[in-house]
Amino acid sequence: FFFSFTHLPMMRLLSVLLLVFCFSAVFAESGARLVISRAILNEELIIGKDTVVNVEIYNVGDEPAYDIEYTEMGAFEQFEPVVGVSTGASWPKLSPGSKISHNFVVRPVATGSFVVGNAEVSYHGSSSDSQVVRIVDRIEYPVVQFSEYQRQTSPHVREWAIFGGLLLIPTAYPLFVWILYQIAYQHGVHKKSKLGVAMAQGTKKKNK
């Protein structure tokens, strides 16, 4: 098969057909199929402050899922758990087209980079054996002290005042010189010189 640019439309069509075939193969299987989504809701991770983690589990299959169990794989060991709140959870059933939302709260205890890590959901359908779905997350989140967070988010009024002053000096100096020139000179002649005095007297006579 000889490839040339004239075959590009055919290649694109074949790519689309291949994607459709792959998705059809995935969703053609009957039974319960769970998809997991996990997100940290805080914009910043701060030592000693509550960090809220949101987990959502979707059943995209055509059968109910049973005995659903969500488990964190040690990713939040460096965090302090909040009393009465568990990172894991379980549910007896999840219907097709439905979702489960689970939030848990932890507190960072050390500065540095935090990798969220893995989590998994185990379940089984009405006509299938036990299955496991995993999240693999290698994103690094920085954990900072509250003082560092304040420094990063403060309005920096003092710094802006200094910056404004530095910008004002080059602008104000030419204006100051121009004002002094207007006071001391008239039509380019110093007002205290003989010519300047004569010009001033002549102007007064004209005004009379």
Automatic annotation (TrEMBL):
TM segments?
Answer: 160-184
GO CC aspect terms: endoplasmic reticulum
* UniProt entry tagged with the keyword Signal: yes
Please state the span of the N-terminal signal peptide per the UniProt entry.
1-28
* Keywords, ordered alphabetically: Membrane, Signal, Transmembrane, Transmembrane helix
Keyword DNA damage belongs to the record? no
Q: Which residues form a coiled coil?
A: none
Q: List, alphabetically, the PANTHER family matched.
A: TRANSLOCON-ASSOCIATED PROTEIN SUBUNIT BETA, TRANSLOCON-ASSOCIATED PROTEIN, BETA SUBUNIT PRECURSOR TRAP-BETA SIGNAL SEQUENCE RECEPTOR BETA SUBUNIT
Return the protein name.
Translocon-associated protein subunit beta
